[in-house]
Amino acid sequence: MRIRVINPNTTESMTALIAASARAVAGPGTVVEAVTSAMGPASIESHYDEALAVPGILAALHDADGYVLACFGDPGLDAAREVAAGPVVGLAEAAMHAATMVGRGFSVVTTLSRTKGRAHDLAGRYVAAGACRGVHACDIPVLDLESDPAARKEVVALARHALERDESDVIVLGCAGMADFASAMSAELGVPVIDGVAAATVLVQSLITLELRTSTRGEYAPPPAKRYSGLLQPFERT
């Protein structure tokens, strides 16, 4: 079994962090290939960034049995499901579903305040009303999570506040760049702390094992053939 974990941004060091998280939970015989997008932003922190990350994601959907989109905004998830041969799972999707299985309510701890609305939108799509008790931002830029030695301490403090304020019992980490925080945070806070990279890897691995693929009936049918122009011409489907 081969799982391709796609980092939709172009920062190689984040791809290495994502790869370590995915490989730590992969089962025997599962090959995890983590790839960095060939085009797009250095980090994804806005709707504009998300939109411009999608072509790189679509270009990376090949040579695997299943795919993980390693960005908490789940950019391009629906488009990826239209064209990928195997199942595709997003980080927020996997993390939020996992959270509902180990607690009654969860809080999301994310990076910038401007991304909180996106997290709320995804929660509204993925889980029952009331399951997501709150979304909290530490206002640390994505790439600073790795370089700032105080980042983990600030994220832990914010998560502790979220648990008390929201009366939640699970923390969902709202950025792939927090993947290596989960285990230590869970031990420190005494609650499940969910890294979406690990959750999505296990989920897509399970779908492959169950021989489940994205349905091609209806909305996720392959997109109709048509001409594309300019920079998007390579994405033309015939």
TrEMBL record:
Organism of origin: Paractinoplanes abujensis
First-level EC class: isomerase
GO MF term (any one): amino-acid racemase activity
Pfam families (alphabetical): Asp_Glu_race
Family under the similarity heading: Belongs to the HyuE racemase family.
UniProt keywords, alphabetically: Isomerase
InterPro entries on file: Asp/Glu/hydantoin_racemase, Hydantoin_racemase-like, Iso_Racemase_Enz_sf
Record EC number: 5.1.99.3
Entry protein name: Allantoin racemase
